[in-house]
Predict the 3D structure of the following.
Amino acid sequence: MMQWDDLPLGKRPEGRWALTADWIIADTPSGRRLVQGGEVIIENDRVLHVGTRFDGAVSARFDMGAALIAPGFVDLDALSDLDTTLLAHDNWPSEHKGRVWPQSYVDRGPYEMYDAEELAFQKRFAFGQLLLNGITSAAPIASLFYREWGETVDEFTAAADAAEALGLRVWLGPAYRAGGMVVDDTATMRAVFDEPRGLHGLQQAIGFAERMQGRVLVSPMLAPDRVETCTEVLLKRTMSAAQDLACPVRLHMAQGQMELQTVQALHGKSAPEWLDDLGCLSDRLLAPHATVATDDDLARYAANGVTVVHCPLVSARHGGALRSFAKLKAMGINVAMGTDTAPPDMVLNMAVGMMACRLMDGHTSVNSGEMFDAATLNGARALGRDDIGVLRVGGKADIAIFDMNDPAMAPRIDPVQTLVLGATGRVTRATIVDGRLSMRDGEVAGIDMKTARTRAQTQFDGLVSRYPERTLGHPPGQDIFPPTFPLIKGA
């Protein structure tokens, strides 16, 4: 019989096959359950059985031993580039660190800082990282700070092909915008707009979405960039198009002071209030991050079925937090999860999210199971799916397998609590998507991640070297991003 290590990456075992382990998370008609010493039966892209021992015939049975077999994570703000946000956490203010375009850069003409192959590579590399962390469904997000304006159809066509080659389920759509923030020589920021360019981006995104309909692992999404870069017309047309396409819309809002002040200055209200007044809040809307949302904003989300995409790690790194996970849950708001920064580690995000909530509301406000549900069931619900983010009969065979025998996570207790308290996705042993083995023991189908890691660093270093061109005053790079301690260079 075939051994686990013999199973080719990117392939499905033939016929009906089984995974057994010490622990399995099973979704039953009575709710989510933890099965000890059970197994999962898979055929093609579907789960045929999950629970105790299966008595029927199987073509292969793989015993994972001291492991947790679980639904794969659903990441609704999935990092899909080389994370420039990392440059911001110890280097501020943003307008002096290349995160807001200076007028001089705008006057010379913004340009793409990556070529087409570099853009395609970073998506492949980022998709591989998601699979390494047990993420089986993703709505990718990337920065527009280093772009000429928005994302392109060509790069997202390549991203769709890459997702299918690597074996990652994705919701894709090129980001578009009608404006952006510019800083002048006095360090004063203002919003500037080019609505026709934004509407052209929307039309391109609609055409892309129409072409993605019917693909196996790729579904369409509309992705206006950030609320302060949008106009009323762009938002209304986006929501109308999403209704026609039956697809989700992701829009970052209620996420920071710059946005809060800009939208207030432009429209005299908060972003959620503005969208509500425009009739643009709906259950199609995925809204990262809600860290500066008021009680009134949250009530508007709840009344309109908006999903809040909670990205605890990147928020905490910026000194922010959702206020709070437990409060939003009690209000009936669907809170799903995203990574949005490096590392794209959903386990770490669950841990930080639980800690942040307990700091806000006390120790008993949230538990590991609720965070796990947010990273699986709630993300699927936001996408209108009941066959992903679950491990049940008839569901998609989208599965993550976690090592419960890792020496860094000892002593082991309840497997879900051990995973979240251990706080690292590096214990992900395998990721299965649509019934095929996409990742096993650090190897990803279709990409050599060790070689890609070296290329990614070289590409990122090249981008950082160009930061002076789009930073206020154009200082040298060592002044924009000084070392933590004074640097002594060797020979």
In short: Residues 16 and 413 are 32 Å apart (CA to CA).
